[in-house]
Amino acid sequence: MTQSPFPLWQDQLADADFTNPAASAARVSQFERKIRRRNALEYLAGGFVGVAFLVSAVAAVAAEEWLFASGMALSATGVLVLLWGLKRRASNLVRRPEDACLTHLRWQYQRQYDALRAVPLWYIGPLVPGMTLFYFAVLAESAEHLGWSAAVEELARPAGTTIAVFVGVALLNLWAARGLKRDIAKLDKLA
User: Fold this and answer.
1) Contact assessment for residue 112 and residue 32, using Cβ atoms and an 8 Å cutoff
2) Which of 17, 20, 24, 129 could bond 101 through an S-S bridge, CB–CB 3.0 to 4.6 Å?
């Protein structure tokens, strides 16, 4: 009589880990909620900042400060481009019923990873022209009263703060992208 292969097979796979489909679906839902909340906050903040730039541009036009108005209008446009980029690059993927939960989660992670890595291009980039023009307008106005050297000195701190915020946002997003890269690697090990 031959020995059954099942006890040997069961012994070898006693410590096997299987993915619970319900747990996978919960992870997908939780991640998608996190993305929806983040994007909702971004849209809210972007709307507030965009309106503030637009109101500043209108006020500058009323005061006939054309360079300042142009900088603010360009910044408001940059916010619109940024929000469009958020929708296009960092929104949730649509779930397809034919995709396994882990496959969908992996694609979601990859999409967010790609978006976070490209933040300097699509998130910060659209704001740079308007902010540059704004600071140039402030510099030119200040230089008329203080002289160029003193105007540059006066502007260095606020411009440096803006640059530091932009660099900080880029670095935080790169850090978050590294975390997603680790999550992607964990999912790939399951496959």
Assistant:
1) no
2) 24
| Angle between helical axes of 66-90 and 128-146 (0-180°, round to 10) | 160
| 59 CB-near residues (< 8 Å, 6+ apart) | none
Q: Is 129 in contact with 72 (CB distance < 8 Å)?
A: no
CA dist 55 and 34 (Å) reads: 32
**Helix H or strand E encompassing 156:** helix 148-190
Residue carrying structure tokens 């910060």: 124
Instruction: Please provide the size of the chain in residues.
Output: 191
Tell me how many degrees the CA angle 53-56-58 measures, rounded to the nearest 5: 110
Q: How far is residue 13's CA from residue 23's CA, in Å, rounded to a whole number?
A: 21
* 50: nearest Cα among 79, 72, 71: 79
Tokens of 96: 């397809």
Q: Is the pTM of this model over 0.70?
A: yes
The three-state secondary structure class of 106 is helix
Q: Distance between CA atoms of 93 and 106, rounded to whole angstroms? A: 11
Structure tokens at 134: 């704004």
* Cα–Cα separations (whole angstroms), residue 15 to 4, 7, 12: 20, 14, 8
